[in-house]
């Protein structure tokens, strides 16, 4: 049986690089899984997910004219293990970020539509608060007595 795009097959990890992993497939063929196709989450170090000699299921993404086989482990996973796509998550309740500094998409909480004047007023208030904080910080640094010059003027 030959390999075709879209097939899910089993293979063995034979090599790991910074950018991906090489997988031995049936018939003596070798394909490569790019680091972005290893897991449904961000992969910084591929060795945290794969080990040489490990058996994995992969989906064939493409076969080039030169015979290079592009593979994906994350697309071979069962549907419930995959990360929800943007559209699937859109109507669900807002998620909390997985860790501090995480920038996952979160829908804004809105209780009622605001008029343009209300939005402008809120923007102006927030802007004024930020400007006063900046001015206060600048005046405090001038009062601290710290001089950038090495010599003092008398």
The geometry reads as elongated
Give the proportion of residues in helices: 10-25%
Structural class: alpha+beta
Q: What is the tally of beta strands?
A: 5
Strand portion: 15-25%
Instruction: Output the CATH class name of one domain.
Output: Mainly Beta
How far apart the termini lie comes to: 91 Å
Strand order of the largest sheet: 1-2-3-5-4
The CATH topology of one domain turns out to be OB fold (Dihydrolipoamide Acetyltransferase, E2P)
| Alpha carbon gyration radius | 27 Å
Largest sheet: 5 strands, mixed, barrel
What is the CATH H-level superfamily of one domain?
Answer: Nucleic acid-binding proteins
**CATH architectural arrangement of one domain:** Beta Barrel
Query: Number of helical segments?
Result: 2
Ranges where pLDDT stays below 50 over 5 or more residues in a row are 88-108
- List the secondary-structure elements in sequence, H or E: EEEEEHH
Please, what is the average pLDDT? 76
What can you see in these coordinates?
The chain is 21% helix and 21% strand. It has a domain at 8-79: Nucleic acid-binding proteins (OB fold (Dihydrolipoamide Acetyltransferase, E2P), Beta Barrel), CATH 2.40.50.140. It contains 2 helices and 5 strands; from the N terminus they run βββββαα. The N and C termini lie far apart (91 Å). It is an alpha+beta fold. It has helices at residues 86-90, 116-143; strands at residues 8-16, 20-24, 30-34, 55-63, 69-72. Mean pLDDT is 76; it is low at 88-108.
């Amino acid at each position: 049986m030959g390999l075709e795009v879209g097939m899910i097959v089993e293979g063995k990890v034979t090599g790991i690089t910074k950018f991906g992993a090489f997988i031995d497939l049936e018939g003596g063929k070798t394909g490569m899984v790019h680091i972005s196709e290893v897991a449904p989450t961000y992969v910084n170090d591929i060795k945290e997910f794969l080990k040489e000699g490990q058996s994995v299921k992969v989906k064939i993404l493409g076969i080039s004219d030169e015979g290079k086989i592009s593979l994906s482990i994350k697309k071979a996973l069962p549907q419930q293990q995959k990360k929800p796509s943007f559209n699937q998550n859109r109507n669900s309740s807002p998620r909390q970020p997985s860790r501090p500094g995480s920038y996952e998409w979160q829908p804004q909480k809105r209780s009622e539509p605001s008029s343009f004047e209300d939005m402008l007023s809120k923007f102006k208030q927030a802007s004024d608060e930020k400007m006063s904080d900046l001015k206060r910080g600048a005046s405090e640094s001038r009062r601290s007595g710290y001089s950038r010059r090495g010599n003092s003027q008398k």
